[in-house]
Design a protein that fits this description.
heterotrimer; A mainly alpha (about 280); B mainly alpha (about 260); C alpha/beta (about 350); A: mainly alpha; MetI-like fold; C: alpha/beta; D-Maltodextrin-Binding Protein, domain 2; nine-stranded mixed sheet; 14 helices; about 40% helix; globular
């Protein structure tokens, strides 16, 4: 004590800035600058500032990879939203003891790491795997199906990867919806369906959007799962970028892919954020 | 309190949970199988694929590297992140609003891009040692977790306690360690655990930042899978799952698990 | 909290402080057949030199690029197939070998001693050909053209374009279409597109391909013969196809990068792997075909290998100058065939 208000203010200012400085420096030096350098490298290609991007979009193969990645990500997101929402709804309405167990069951996969979770599907979907064995055992097929190294395998494994994330995001949001609202709606004569669509769903939308964005960007930028379950036939942006960077050693091409990846993910985040702001009836 | 649920919803939810647990059980079964190839249900039970993990030099080394990197980067992320979170709670008015966006950038920018950029611009162009680049990459990856979780804890902290201590003559620094930190202990533990696990499991940043004799456990697992399709991969997976169980048990004892749903 | 911080820091620092007493030889190779190489090559050499050995593993492309990124440093002995070591030489990554330090060279075939102008010697000869599972493929494969057969739909694996054997598939596709792939790539790639329905997955490494056989995903593949022993260990019914047109030769070389920390040790190591004893053990163990003329194999052992002066003289050689020049364009076109 004993300092004037002015002095305390400026000391606070100094303290505040000094304390965040290391973090700011780390993010600048370790992220902003290197990524920025990667981006600017794409504009330095021999044919002119946008030639790297021209080359990307001119290549039928690369366009296919981009579209395939977008469609896989959209598919995964849609499935994850539907499954996640149903499950999160059930979890949030479950009695206390069961709820804890269910949340543990939902969190556990998230913490086990992407390689383990993708690998499990190699065991399940292989020609000698469980699914084929079961189908042949039931007499539904005679020869094992070639399930691996297809977009379907990648989609299934990524749904497995991301549904827990979706559930956790939504449970928080759904929990925040007061029971009284639902009871009030029912007591005013709304059918359960109407209550769902007009009361619960709109209130859950912000959480849905956050979850969907997380799942989409995660699927779009994935590497391990497409690498293990897709291979060269199901090349996606992440695996293509690795191949260009580390195997073919075309760094301009790899940087271009990185730039496009960033534009797509940041773009989606920005669009979703503004959509969330407008759709949220309880804007805070 | 529980409202009536349509049975179809419960059915879907049940299936989803089976869908979660099933593959992990399959991996566990495959790890115990006494065959040289992956199969489920296991044919004969044996622990030899677990023994094999420790016999393989590459797994031993990369396990050690992963632990080193995880401890180092978690430590760094906390050292850097806690003061930052504190500053953003306590001195919010003095700091530009864009700071919270800056600290969330590592989550928004794709990991692959970060790893590749570090390789190209830091490791290659600046000739920085690969290990250093790896630690930087991991620290950046987990910094947002550290800041976010600690900030959440700080939001519930009553700063007037700190003020009171200072006004009673306690030096600022000492107050930070003796008053503030103990009160946000649970937040720091949570941040440590989340950050540590994220670093141990990371693939997308580490995939670029490996070199002769230097690799992390998940990357080594990927490489091993390309070479040997034997149950060792399954047993390493089970080991990693076991680590997760231990961690979750610790979290449950200290914090209660529903914390993670927030 | 303080305890966590201090103990983490301590563990991190202590773990970092690794003792560096013995000399360390850093080897870059594929990692294939790792256990056998450990027993026949690494363990004896370690005993002989009293040094530590650090390994970098991966396929040709990745390791060459990482070496380039490091400016030729960080590795003492680098194993590459000849097309890739040719690239490495062009990039200035390797140093000329002092052949006076390699007395064992005298015991090797002429074509293995100095294949690439003063740089590393070849330590093994190989062939690129076709293998198939005789239990699942009824009609034997006797020609490169058989790859296009209908009974192989959904059962074939080709080497990825970025591997050693990949570009050779393009050359063979050209021959299938009756053209020289270098002169008329369009026809060659059209032939490849016709092959696509047969292909399940292209493999990026020998071990990946062995996996595909052992898990039953494929019944035939274009491979290099050094993988044959491992494939047969996993699936005994797999056989090397006797092709009427013959196979393509590959040489695997071993080089010393410009930035090697231990060039002396590196020369000693190279001399070691060229010795007749090591070559004999590796050949008998199903690891590599020998370049040492003194190696004597029974006809049964020899059937796996590129062995015998006559066979070697009859192999097709690829013009790597032309191939490396065309490779960039071929990668793009290959991706268009298989990746879309």
């Amino acid at each position: 004590m004993g300092l004037s208000a002015r002095a305390r203010y400026s000391r606070g200012q100094f303290a505040g800035q000094a304390l965040v400085l290391p973090a700011v420096l780390l993010v600048l030096v370790g992220l902003v600058l290197p990524v920025g350098a990667t981006l600017s490298a794409t504009f330095g290609a021999p044919g002119g500032p946008l030639s790297a991007y021209d080359a990307f979009f001119a290549s039928g193969f690369r366009r296919t990879v981009l579209l395939r990645t977008v469609s896989v990500a959209l598919t995964v997101t849609t499935i994850a939203v539907v499954l996640g929402f149903c499950t999160a709804y059930v979890v949030s309405r479950a009695p206390g003891w069961l709820k804890s167990i269910l949340i543990i069951a939902a969190v556990f996969p998230l913490l086990t790491g992407v390689v383990v979770r993708s690998f499990a599907w190699l065991v399940i979907l292989g020609k000698n795997g469980i699914l084929n064995d079961a189908l042949m055992g039931l007499g539904l097929i005679e020869q094992p199906l070639s399930l691996l190294y297809t977009p379907g395998a990648v989609v299934v494994a990524m749904v497995y990867l991301f549904v827990p994330l979706m559930i956790l995001t939504l449970v928080g949001v759904l929990d925040a919806i007061p029971d009284e609202l639902i009871q009030a709606s029912a007591s005013l004569g709304a059918s359960p369906m109407a209550t769902f669509t007009q009361v619960i769903l709109p209130l859950a939308v912000p959480g849905l959007i956050v979850g969907a964005v997380l799942v989409f960007t995660g699927s779009f930028t994935a590497y391990a799962t497409p690498q293990l379950l897709g291979g060269e036939q199901v090349m996606m942006m992440g695996t293509l970028m690795y191949q260009q960077a580390m195997v073919t050693f075309d760094w301009v091409s790899a940087s271009t892919i990185a730039a496009i990846m960033m534009v797509v993910t940041l773009g989606i985040v920005a669009v979703m954020n503004s959509a969330a702001r407008r759709l949220n009836p309880m804007a805070s | 309190m529980p409202t009536r649920l349509h049975p179809a919803l419960i059915g879907v939810a049940g299936l989803v949970f089976v869908f979660f647990v099933g593959p992990l059980v399959i991996v566990l079964g495959a790890a115990l199988s006494d065959t040289t190839y992956l199969t489920f249900p296991p044919q004969g039970l044996s622990l030899r694929w677990f023994e094999n993990i420790f016999a393989i030099d590459a797994f031993r080394r990369t396990m050690l590297t992963s632990l080193q990197v995880a401890f180092l980067s978690t430590f760094l992320a906390l050292m850097i992140g806690i003061p930052a979170a504190y500053a953003m709670s306590r001195h919010r008015v003095h700091l530009p609003g864009c700071l919270s966006t800056l600290f969330v950038l590592p989550v928004l920018v794709p990991e692959l891009v970060v790893g590749f950029s570090l390789l190209k611009n830091v490791a290659f162009q600046l000739h920085a040692p690969i290990f250093l680049s790896l630690v930087i990459g991991h620290t950046i990856l987990i910094l947002p977790y550290a800041i976010r979780v600690v900030s959440a804890s700080l939001a519930q902290f009553d700063f007037s306690i700190e003020e009171a201590a200072i006004s009673l003559g306690s030096p600022r620094l000492k107050t930070f360690f003796t008053v503030l930190l103990p009160n946000i202990r649970s937040g720091i533990i949570a941040a440590f655990i989340l950050a540590f696990i994220t670093s141990i499991n990371d693939v997308s940043i580490s995939i670029f930042l490996t070199g002769p004799g230097l690799s992390t456990l998940p990357i080594q697992l990927l490489a091993h899978m390309e070479q040997f399709f034997d149950p060792t991969v399954a047993s390493v997976s089970v080991l990693l799952m076991g680590l997760t169980v231990v961690v979750m048990a610790v979290v449950e004892r200290t914090l209660g698990l529903t914390f993670l749903a927030k | 909290m303080g305890k966590i911080a201090i103990s983490s820091a301590l563990i991190g620092l202590v773990a970092l402080a690794s003792p560096a007493e013995a000399r360390t030889l850093s080897i870059s190779w594929w990692g294939f057949n790792g256990e056998k190489l450990e027993a026949v090559v690494l363990a004896p050499f370690r005993a002989q030199c009293g040094c530590e050995i650090v390994l970098e593993t991966g396929n040709n492309g990745e390791r060459l690029n990482k070496l380039q990124m490091r400016g030729g440093m960080g590795t003492d002995v680098a194993y590459f197939s000849d097309s890739f070591s040719q690239q490495g030489i062009a990039l200035g990554l390797f140093q000329p070998i002092d052949r006076s330090k390699l007395p064992n060279l005298d015991g090797n075939y002429d074509l293995a001693r100095d294949p690439q102008g003063g740089y590393g010697p070849a330590y093994t000869l190989g062939r690129v050909g076709i293998v198939y599972d005789a239990a699942k493929v009824e009609k034997p494969i006797t020609s490169w053209n058989d790859l296009w057969r209908e009974d192989l739909v959904g059962g074939l694996s080709l080497p990825g374009i970025t591997t050693t054997a990949g570009p050779m598939v393009v050359i063979k596709a050209g021959e299938h279409a009756g053209v020289d792939a270098f002169e008329a790539p369009d026809a060659a790639f059209a032939a490849l597109a016709a092959l696509k329905p047969n292909v399940v997955k292209n493999y990026g490494s020998g071990s990946e391909m062995v996996n595909l056989f052992s898990t039953g995903e494929i019944v035939a593949a274009v491979v290099q013969d050094f993988t044959l022993a491992q494939i047969q260990a996993a699936v005994p019914s797999v056989t090397w196809a006797a092709l009427e047109e013959g196979s393509i030769a590959t040489l695997n070389t071993v080089n010393i990068p410009v930035g090697a920390a231990e060039p002396e040790l590196a020369h000693q190591f190279i001399n070691f792997i060229l010795s007749a004893e090591v070559q004999q053990q590796l050949a008998e163990g199903g690891v590599d075909a020998p370049v040492a003329t003194a190696v004597a194999l029974t006809p049964e052992q020899a059937s796996l290998w590129t062995y015998g002066a006559e066979l070697i003289a009859g192999l097709e050689r690829v013009d790597y100058g032309k191939m490396n020049a065309a490779k960039g364009a071929w990668v793009e076109r290959w991706n268009e065939v298989f990746g879309m």
